[in-house]
Design the sequence.
């Protein structure tokens, strides 16, 4: 079994560094309490999606950052070929959309900005739609880690929707969306006590059952 030896000087350095981190954390906490910015009193922030002017996503992002508003504009890398060179460029993944993380109380402030058209809402609702943080984190992971081309296709369908196939070989069949990606959905027909049969269907062949 290998033995790791640490000198007294190294041990003192480690302990000094740990003490330094504890002192920094303690001072930061005291400063927060003095300045009235203790985390316990901080207002919760949520993710929302802004609809903004075309080709202005990065400008909007910079402007919002100057207002101390957290933003996220996902980009995808695309290789462009010219006669004399090849170059990678950044392309906006979701055109005319800027994701923001703010307190609900600041929404009216954001909506007054001239470059903001609206804040996305769920159909039939008047309040801005909150985006689950895990979806934002998953999107960031996909964008940052994928080596392949990333595409984003808007859809009105979501997992669990009751849908009907309105054209094609399976026209008239109703079921529940089990997966939704790459312009196709997996529609599932549940058989109680037995399981669920699924089939891949083009999204364009589906409509919501209440439509």
Sequence:
């Amino acid at each position: 079994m290998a033995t790791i030896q640490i000198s007294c000087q190294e041990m003192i350095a480690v302990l000094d560094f740990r003490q330094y981190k504890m002192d920094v954390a303690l001072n930061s906490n005291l400063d927060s309490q003095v300045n009235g910015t203790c985390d316990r009193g901080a207002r919760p922030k949520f993710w929302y999606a802004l609809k903004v002017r075309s080709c202005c996503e990065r400008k909007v992002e910079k402007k919002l950052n100057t207002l101390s508003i957290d933003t996220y504009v996902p980009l995808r890398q695309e290789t462009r070929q010219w006669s004399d060179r090849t170059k990678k460029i950044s392309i906006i993944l979701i055109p005319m959309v800027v994701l923001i993380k703010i307190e609900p109380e600041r929404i009216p402030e954001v909506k007054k900005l001239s470059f903001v058209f609206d804040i996305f809402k769920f159909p039939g609702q008047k309040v801005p739609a909150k985006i689950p943080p895990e979806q934002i984190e998953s999107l960031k992971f996909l964008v940052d880690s994928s080596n392949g081309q990333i595409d984003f296709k808007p859809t009105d369908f979501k997992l669990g929707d009751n849908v009907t196939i309105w054209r094609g070989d399976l026209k008239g069949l109703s079921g529940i969306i089990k997966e939704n990606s790459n312009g196709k959905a997996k529609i599932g027909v549940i058989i109680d006590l037995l399981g669920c049969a699924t089939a891949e269907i083009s999204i364009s062949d589906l409509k919501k059952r209440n439509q």
Notes: The two ends are 70 Å apart (CA to CA). The mean pLDDT is 74.
